[in-house]
Amino acid sequence: MASSMLSIGVSGLQAAQTALATNSNNIANVYTPGYSRETVELNGNSGGGVSVASISRQTDSYLSAQLDSAMSASTALETHEANISQIDNLLADDEAGLAPLMQEFFGAIEGVASQPSDPAARESLLGSAESLAGQLNAFSAYLDDMDSAVNSQLGDVVGDINTATSQIASLNEQISLTRARTGEEPLGLLDQRDQAVTDLQTLVGVEVQEQDGRLSVSLGNGQLLVNGSSNYELAVEPDPQDMSRSVVTYSVAPGVTSAIDEAQLEGGTLGGLLSFRADSLEPTQNQLGQLAAGLALTFNAQHADGVDANGNTGGDFFTLGDPEVLPASGNAAGADLEVTFAPATQQEGDDFYSVALTGDDYRLSLDGDKYQLENLSSGAVQTLTPDSEGVMRQDGLVFTATGMADGDSFTIQPTRNIADTFGVAIDEGAEIAAGSSDASLDNRNILALQSLQSSDALGSAGSFNDHYASLVSQVGNQTRQVQVNLEAQQGLTEQLSAADQSISGVNLDEEAADLIRYQQYYQANAQVIQTASTVLDTILNIR
Amino acid sequence: MRISTQTLYAQGVTSMLDQQAAFSKVSEQLATGKRVVNPSDDPSAASQAVTISQSQAVNEQFSDSRTTARNNLSIEESALNQVTDTITRVQSLIVQAGNGTLSDSDRDALATELEGSREVLLGLANSTDGNGNYLFGGMSGDTAPFGEDGSYRGDDEQRQQRVDSSRLMEVNHTGSQIFGGVASGNQQLARQTSESESSLPITFKGPDVVDAAARVDGAAYSVSIDAAGVTISGTDADGNDLQVLDGEGNPLPSPMAFSDGMTLAFNGLSMTLSGDEQQVLEAQTSGKATQLVVEEGEASADLFANLDGLITALSTPIESEADQAAFNNAISTASRQFSNSLDNVLTVRADVGTKLNELDSLDIIGDDRELNYASTRSDLIDLDYNEAISDYSLTQVGLQASQQAFSDISGMSLFDYLR
C-alpha cells in the first residue's frame, strides 16, 4: 500500500511539475504576440495516481480567422488613410493652396484691366502667373512623389508577402514532421504558423484552409500562395499597358508572369496601397491636370484674340505639354498614336472659351478596322471614325493613329502628369495681349480673360474654382469616409481581439492563482511521498 | 468574460490614445481658431469655403476695379468742370462781342482773350491722369488726342471696366464725344457761308423750332438770297432733295422777294431776315448774294473749329454794312454752337456724376456682400469657441480619467500579495 502511495505521490508530483511548467510558460509568454494560453489536462490513472493527458492550446480557430480578416481590412484602411491624409493636409493649407493663388492671378488680371498701360500691373500679372504655375507644378510633383512611393512600397510589401508565405510553407513542413516524429502537438510551431498567417493577412487579404494539418493559402481570385510545403512568389513589375506603373504579378510558367487583377488584391497594406492609388491618388492627379490643362488652353485661346503692347497678336500665355500616350507592349512595330489637346473653343451662345476635357483616362484600340475609344473610368466605349485627314476627335482630344494593326492599343492619360508641364510662356509684360488693338489703354481682351474666372471654362466641370472646390470636397469626403470606416473597423478588430484574447490570452492574476494552486498541489504530493516514506519506514523498523 | 492581461493593457492604452487624439484635435482647433482644419473635417463646408473665398476674391477685384474707375471718372469730372467754366467764359465773351458799339480794337481784345480760352480748352482736352495717360484719347492713351489745330487724333473707343459681376462700366469719354459732339435736344443753327465782301448786308435771327413734329431729322437747308430773291432748298440726312413746306404744309413760293424783317417758315422752323431794303437792292444789283446754311447742331459741333471761326470773325475789321451783317451772323451762329457745346459737356458731366453715384452704391452693395461672405465663411469653418472650450475640458477630463484607470488597473496584481 505504501508503495502504491509512493507511486501515486510521484505521479502527482510529476503532474504538479508539468502544471507549474505550463503555468510558468504562460506567464513568460504573457506578452508574446501569437502565443496561445496552454492548459494541462490531467487524467486519473485506473491503477491510482494521475497522469498528464495533454497540454493543449486554448484557441478558437473560427474567432481567430475572423480577427485576422478584420485586421486585414483594418490595415488596408490604415494604409489608405495614412496616404490620403497627406493629400488632405496638402489641400488644407489656406495660404499656399491653389485657390488663393488662382484668385491672386485673376486679381492681377483685374489690375491690368484697370491700368492696361501700367508696366507695373503687367509685371505683377506675370509674377502671379509664375506663382500659380509654380504651385501647380509643386502640387503635381508632390502627387508624383506619392505615386513613386506607392510603387516602391508595393515592392517592399510583396517582398514581405513572399517571406510570410515561405514561412508558412516551411512551418507546414516542420509541423507535419514533428507530429510524425513525436506524435505530439508542436504547440510553439502552431502558434508561430498562426502568427505568420496573421502577419500575411495584414499584408494582403488571403483565404486560409486547413487540410491534414497543413494550411493552404490563396488570394481572392483563387491564386494559391501556399500549398503544403511549397509557396508561390508574387512579384512587382511594370504594367504592360503603362510602364510607369507597377503592378503585382505571379508566375504562370517559368519566365512568364501574369498581372493580378487589382480588384482581387483586397485587404492588408497591399490592398490599401492599391485602393489609395486607384481611388484617390490617380483621380486627384487627373483632376489637377484637368484644371491645369483647361486653364492653359482657354487662356491661350482668348489671349490669341488680343493684341499685345508691341502690336503683335497674342502668343501663348501658358505652356502645356501633350497628353501621355502609352503603347501596349504587344503593339505591332511602327504602330503609333499621337494625341494632342484640342484648342479651346467658344460654344454656341457663349462669349468665353471652354474645353471639353474630362479627368478620365482612355484606351484607344483597333478592333478589326474600327477604332474603339474606351473611357477607363466609366467603361463607356465609343467608335471613332477618322476624318479625311485621318484625325479623330473626342472629349477635347485629337487622335492621329498610324500603322496600328488589329488588336493594337494605346493607353492615354491626358491629364495625369500634365500639371507638371504647366508654365508661363511669355516673359515680358508687353507681351500680354490686353487689348483688341495696340492702343495703350485698350483693355478689351484682358476683360475677356478676366471673365474666364467666373465662366464655365471647363465645360461640364464648371469654372476653374468650381472644379477645385469639387476636388477639395472629393478628397475631403474620401478621407472622411476612409477615417470613419477605419474607426468602425478598428472597433470591430478590438472587440474581436478581446474575444480572441479571452480564450487564448494569458491573465496574470489567473496564473498567479494557478501558481499558488500548483505549488500547494506539489507540496501536498510531496507530503504524500513523505507520508508514504514514513509508513514504509514504520514497517521496515518492525524487527 | 475572461480578460487577458494583454487585453487589459491594450484597452487601457487604446482608450488613452483615443482620448489623446480627441484632446489634440480640440487643441488644434483652439490654436487655429478653425473648426475645419483639413477638408476631411467637414468636406462640404471645406468645398463651400473654397467657393466663398473665390466670391470674396472676385468681390475684392470688383472693389479694386471700382477704385480705379472712380479715380478715372473723378479726374475726368474735374477736367470737365474746368471745360464748363471755360465754355461759360467763351459764352459771356460772345455776348460782349454782340454789343454793336464795339470798335475793331475792342473786338481784337476779345479775340485775344478767346485765344487764351482756346489754349485753356486745348490743354484740358489733352489732360493726362496720374500715370501720364491722356484722358480723352479713347483707348489711345499715349498720344495727345488733339493737335495744335484742334483736330482730333484719338479713337472713338470708350474703355470699360468690370465694376461688378454684371456691370461693365465705361470709365472714360472720348475727345470727340466731349469736344466734337452735341447732346440730344441740341439746337438747329444757321450759318453764313458766303464771304462778307460778296454778300448782302442781311442779318438772320433764329432759326427757332415752331413745329417740332414737322421737322425732318438730319435735314440741311440752304438759303440763297440773290438778285432773284430768296430761294430755299433742302436735303435729308441721305442727301435726297426735300420739298420745302411752309407752316401750313404748302410748298413755299420760290424764289420769294426779300423784305426787311421777313419771316421764313419752313419745315417746322422759323427764321427772320433783316437788312436795309435799299442797301440790299443795291448790293443785289451789283451781283452780290448771301448764302446761308440751316443745319442740325451736330453738323457743326467741332468746338475748336467753332472757336477758330469766332476768333477769325472777331479779328476781321468791319468796313461795310455787309461786314457788319456777316459779323452779326457769325456771333449768333457761335452763340448757338457754344450753347450746344455747353449742353453737351454738361450731359457728359451728368453721365460721369451718375456713374460716380453708381460706384458708391456698388461699393455699399459690395461691402454688404463681403460681410455676408465673411460671416458665411466663418460659420462654415471657424470655431465656436464656447463649444470648443467645453469640448477641451471634457476631453481633458476624459484623458485624465483614462490615465487614472490605466494606472489603477496596472497597479493591481495578485503577485503583489504573494510575499
Summarize the structure.
Chain A is an alpha+beta fold and 543 residues long.
Describe this structure in words.
The complex is a heterodimer of chains A (543) and B (419). Chain A is α+β, with helices and mostly antiparallel strands and 543 residues long. Chain A has a five-stranded antiparallel beta sheet with strand order 11-20-15-16-17, with no helix packed on it. A four-stranded antiparallel beta sheet of chain A has the order 3-4-5-6, with helices on one face. Chain A is elongated, with a radius of gyration of 36 Å. The relative contact order of chain A is 0.15. The model of chain A has no long low-confidence stretch (mean pLDDT 91). A five-stranded antiparallel beta sheet of chain B has the order 3-10-5-6-7. In chain B, strands 4-9-8 form a three-stranded antiparallel beta sheet. The longest helix of chain B is centred in the last third of the chain and has 61 residues. The two termini of chain B are 28 Å apart. Chain B has eight helices and ten strands. Chain B is α+β, with helices and mostly antiparallel strands and 419 residues long. Helices cover 52% and strands 13% of the residues of chain B. The interface between A and B is large, with 68 and 55 residues.
Strands of chain A, count? 21
Low-confidence stretches of chain B: none
By DSSP (H or I, 4+ residues per run), the number of helices of chain A equals 9
Number of strands of chain B: 10
User: What can be said about the biggest beta sheet of chain B?
Assistant: 5 strands, antiparallel
Helix proportion of chain A: 40-55%
**Tally of helical segments of chain B:** 8
Give the helix level of chain B as a range of percent. 40-55%
Q: In percent, how much strand structure appears in the residues of chain B?
A: 5-15%
Strand order of the largest sheet of chain B: 3-10-5-6-7
As an assembly, this protein is: heterodimer
Mean pLDDT across residues of chain A: 91
Compressed to H and E, one letter per element, the order of chain B equals HHHEEHEEEEEEEHEHHH
- C-alpha Rg of chain B, in Å? 41 Å
Helix-strand pattern of chain A? HEEHHHHEEEEEEEHEEEEEEEEEEEEHHH
Instruction: Indicate the radius of gyration of chain A in whole angstroms.
Output: 36 Å
Mean pLDDT of chain B: 88
Amount of beta strand of chain A: 15-25%
